[in-house]
Amino acid sequence: MTESIVAFFVDIFSFLGKTLLGKNLTIFFVSMLPILELRGGMLAASILGLKALPSLIICIIANIIPIPLILWFITPVFNWFKKKKGLRKFANWCEKHAQKNQGKIDALKYYGLFLFVAIPLPTTGAWTGSLIAALLGLDKKKSCIAAILGVIVAGLIMLLLSYGILGGVLN
Fold this sequence. Notes:
The protein is mostly helical. It contains nine helices and no strands.
């Protein structure tokens, strides 16, 4: 299912072109999307036939960009959303989603955050991990480091899956 979602977004970003730059921008933007994140970016890179190591670096950088933004700004943004009738439901949904996964991080704090981001499963990743850390009131700098390290490990895992195990099966 993830592969079909990634293929959908690869098609959406096809307007960027079939050049190396266009393909790299595609994996960059896919890696920044919530839910897909780096997992989707690495799968997209594999689908687009891009080289593994440069793709990994692009996907890691793209997936790291939202982390500090979420940690430092999500609480004021959600507080503002809650004041707006049309956005209140979305803010509450995001908080509810984060609270469902809160126990996975709460017990181990920064190690839990690292593991939550590092294990590339659906609904885990930098976006949700950073959101949970912000809602728990964890130290922003320590959370940022834990999430970034998690993204790097997730990237290495996805490199093996996208270009190794899965890459061999799909190609």
